[in-house]
Each structure stands twice: as C-alpha cells, then as structure tokens.
Amino acid sequence: MRILLTNDDGIHAPGLRALYPQLRQLGEVTVIAPMHEQSAAGHSVTLHSPLIVQESFDETGVSIGYAVEGRPADCVKLALLELLPQRPDLIVSGINAGSNAGINVLYSGTVAAAIEGAFFRCTSIAVSLDYENKPIPFIQASDYARQVIEQIIAYASPREDHFGGLWNVNIPDLDKSKIRGIRLSPQNVSPYIEKFMRRTDPRGRTYFWMGNDFACPEPHPDTDESLLAEGFITITPLQFDLTNHRTLNQLHENSRWKIS
Description:
Layout: E1 2-6, H1 14-24, E2 28-34, E3 53-57, E4 63-68, H2 72-83, E5 90-97, H3 109-119, E6 123-129, H4 138-156, E7 166-171, E8 181-184, E9 196-200, E10 206-210, H5 224-229, E11 232-238, H6 245-254
Parallel strand pairs: 1-2, 1-5, 2-4, 5-6, 6-7, 8-11
Antiparallel strand pairs: 3-4, 7-11, 9-10
Helix pairs in contact: 1-4, 2-3
C-alpha cells in the first residue's frame, strides 16, 4: 500500500513523526507536509507565490519526503500532480495537536488536506488528538490512530468505485481517562464560544488577538464533540458537497423562479 502522510502542524511536528512509523506497518509511506505550521489555514491554496519544495530527512539521514512552503491543500495537490510517481492508495493527515470536531472541521488545515485528497478520489483520513496538558501523548495516540485507520481501510477496500471516502478521526484527551471505545458519529454543529483579547500597541492603536479557548458549551448529544468529551474515539464520514439537497428539492417542488 502506498501512503501519503501530511498535516498542518508542519513537517517537523511530533504528531506527524509519531504517526510515521505506525503507518509504515501498513505500507510504503511518503511525507509531503508544510514547512511551517499552518493551523486554521482551512482549504486555502497558494496562488501568488511559488511553492518551494525541499527534501526532508529523518533523524538517521534517510529521506522521508518533502517539505513545502505552502498550505496543507497545496501539499496534497502538489504531491498528486507533481511529486509522487504513482497515486497513493491512502492519504493520512495528522496527527493534529488539538481536536478537529464540530465546526472546527471548516477551519482545519488538517481536514482540508484530507478533503483535497478526496477531490482526487483517494481514500483520505484526517486524525486529530484532543489535549489540555503538555507533553502531548502522541506516541500512544499514534497506536490508536493506526488501529482506527486499519479498520477504515478494511471497510473502504471492497468498494466498487475504488474510493473509500473521506474520514475525520478524533482521539480524546488521553490524560483525562482511558479510551472507552470507538463511536461512529455525526459532526456537531452547535456554536462555539469565541473570545478576542482587546489590546493597545505601543503607538496607541487598538488591535485584537483571538483567544485559544474554543469552548462548545452545549454540543448535541451523540455527536463528535460530545462523544469525544466522554472518552470515545470518534469517526465521522465527511463529504465536500455543501449543497443543501433538501432545500433544493423543496424549491424545485414549490417555487417558480423567474426574472422580468
């Protein structure tokens, strides 16, 4: 199995480095990841500057892939169109430092990299780890991640269209409690409480800095947010078709649109 490993925390991030040897148990792994951290980059791509690519090496001096001066989506797009001799069988993005559940999916560079792979009809999995305290237990989380990825692959492989889908995996805070199991869950859509810190710079100008506490006080039950908080690994199948088909069908049935 050919596996592309990427992330949004950067090629030197401990989450990626922890997941790399785990994925090597499943197949041949190539890393193509951002040179620097790209958290909350979403699905942005680079249009107005060149994408500089440098070969990256592990601690023993062995080449593991490439670092890209770009966004997570850039990395996957460049990998599939230019850098890899063959299309991968699997794309994994992670392990992200911090969960990507609920509406964070829309901001996440980690999930965006997986979505980009799904655009190309590659089975793509985003993996994130919730945490509060450091050091973050990436080694332990990577073992759980591999087990989940193996099960997703087992489901995806027999499909006739050769596309195993787009998956978002979140691992709960391992310092809080033991893993209670795995739950398939929908994405939570409850709003978050977000705060800005208002400050004044040395020249008297007001500026704002977004806080890092994205609390979701009332998540819907049995969604990725609530189950993650209860100690479950969550698996959410995603899609990038944002069409509201229910409303579209209702409009077709009940409305007549015209211009004069």
